[in-house]
Structure formats: structure tokens, C-alpha cells
Amino acid sequence: MIDEESSKPPSRFHISVEPTLCMAFGSCEVLAPKVFVLEKNKIINPKVRIESEDGASFEDILSAAETCPTKAIRIIDRHSGEQVYP
What we know:
Layout (H helix, E strand, L loop, with lengths): L3 H4 L5 E5 L9 H5 L4 E3 L9 E3 L7 H9 L6 E5 L5 E3 L1
Antiparallel strand pairs: 1-4, 2-3, 4-5
């Protein structure tokens, strides 16, 4: 049986959160909850993690990244290698 998740091509954009910059404000999770997940179970120093790079449209992901006050979210175009944001 083929695992559909592993056979899907990767999203065009690689999304990452820099843990040293993330202050867990959570605005990214509000705008793109299927992409960004705040680790609510962590009492000390919670962070946001990426759940799915294709869980929202690129526009919604970019909007979520733009709301991050510490600019902890990085978006890189896998085709060109160019950093799209910030």
C-alpha cells in the first residue's frame, strides 16, 4: 500500500521557524492553522512548529509570516533557492 503523504511532491516553498526568534505570539497559527502550530503543551519557552507546508495558500502563508513581529518565519522557494521572506 502506498502512503499518499510520502508520495506527494514537496511544496514549492520551504517554510521554517527560527526557534531563537520565535516568541510564540501565535498570529501565524491564527492565519494559517494547518501550517503553523503553537506548541501549547510546552509551558516553558513554547515555539511554533510547521505542521504542513501545503496546508494553506502561499498568500495565506506569506500573510502569516508577515504578522510575525520577530520575523522568525522563513520562506524559501525550492525551485530557485531564493529566500522569499523576510
